[in-house]
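Case study B.
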Amino acid sequence: MEKVFKIGNRSFTLDQDKAEEAFAAKKVINGRKTEAFNLLPLKYTWAYDIYRDMKANHWEPEDIQMQKDIEQWQGSDLSDSDRWIIRMGIGYFSAAEGIVGDNIIHVVRELVTAPELKLVLGRHAHEENVHADSLLYMISSLGINPHECEAMFEQIPTIKKKNEFVTRVSHELRRDADMTDPVNKKKFARDIFLFGQCMEGTQFYGLFGMILSLYRQNKFPGIGQMFQYTLRDESNHIKLLRHLFLELIRENPEIWTEDFKEELVQTMIEAIALEKEFIADCLPVSSVGLSDADFCSYIDYIADRRLEGVGLRQLNPGIQNPFPWLAETMDIKKEANFFEQRVTEYQKSSSLASVSDDEL
Ligand SMILES: [Fe+2]
Ligand SMILES: [Fe+2]
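Model:
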């Protein structure tokens, strides 16, 4: 018996019995292993939907003008704390983007078995490359010594501690972990929670907030714009890893114990503490018109949204967002600018390519 499957605006005819068999063999972990990339029939449709959203957000650093940023960097209108925030931003993210990409490619994408999950995770890792490339573009445009970034990663204790906090979990899960072992299943779930909700979802937000505050004051418009696009990508990464986490728990309910839930909450508590120490380093004096205390309560607010998103207890129920304007600055979907036109062009050229492929 044949059945038509639809994905986006495409439709495919599949043998129903074989399709059901293949569908049942798809799992987040411990599913059918195949050399071929059997995307169809699609089981995790959310993964493909996120992949399509990611594609539609494609951007390239060189599309963004840095002239004004260079003038400001070389001029005398900026305060030392404005420059310090930019240096901390570049120093921290230069290492962090790589650490996330490494975990996605060498841990998460390796351990999942369904091809549509591998597809979207491949895109995730690629976007971390774009982010790393955007930092390189900022460093070269402003004329910052690249060794200075590496030195920050090595020598600033709050950056070092944030990075060690995530890498010690991902290093335990390199290839060949036996994923039928509940201990490893928990480690994997913790890795996905840690990277998606604690690191990308919470620890990135201190600097995002500070850099976008500068942007709001017309400081570093090019860097601000790049961070806006990065943040839009991060929202998809957080969503992707949240879905993946929930699906993993749904398929492996035996690991969802009270003890494990508490372990995850404690992981978030540690992430928040590290982020607050880091914020104090970024804002040694109240700067960008915002206080260290406001940023800390912003982190508490964000962390609760992440915990809530995966069904864990909140740490500060009812906490308000101290920066409601930030949500607006972060939501760039409504904004019409030259860059949105470029995005449309990328979409157009990709749909043209797929038309010609079909015709071959
Ligand atoms: Fe990133
Ligand atoms: Fe990311």
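The longest strand covers residues 2-7. The remaining cases will be described in the next quarterly update.
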